């Protein structure tokens, strides 16, 4: 039986223009951290072409509990606090449950 994956999408991280480079550096650091976590499969950062300084973060996890463990981590909480000064608005996470793990790629 194929393993089902959970994909999270952080919607529209609207970054203050003067903090964009700092945001990208922080995303890279968080990405390095999540690569070491149980259940993390992949994270992709995408820039929204039609909106300056706006990004999407798409991450794939083996299960919801693995993702929720990341949300409880010191790294996530520190980044969340840091983001209050860097982001124009609070990003929200939604879950997408593909039919099979293959659908997550």
Detail the topology: elements first, then pairings.
Blueprint: E1 6-14, H1 20-34, E2 40-47, E3 54-61, H2 64-71, H3 74-86, E4 93-96
Antiparallel strand pairs: 1-3, 1-4, 2-3
Helix pairs in contact: 1-3
Question: Could you give a quick summary of the protein structure above?
Answer:
The protein is 34% helix and 28% strand. It is α+β, with helices and mostly antiparallel strands.
Which term fits the overall shape? globular
The share of residues in helices is: 25-40%
Q: How do the helices and strands follow one another from N- to C-terminus?
A: EHEEHHE
Number of helices: 3
DSSP, total strands: 4
For the sheet with most strands, the description reads:
4 strands, antiparallel
Relative strand content: 25-35%
How far the N terminus sits from the C terminus, by CA atoms, comes to 17 Å
* Rg (CA only): 14 Å
Q: What strand order characterises the main sheet?
A: 2-3-1-4
Structural class of the helices, strands and pairings?
Answer: alpha+beta
Name the average pLDDT: 85
Runs in which pLDDT lies below 50 for 5 or more consecutive residues are none
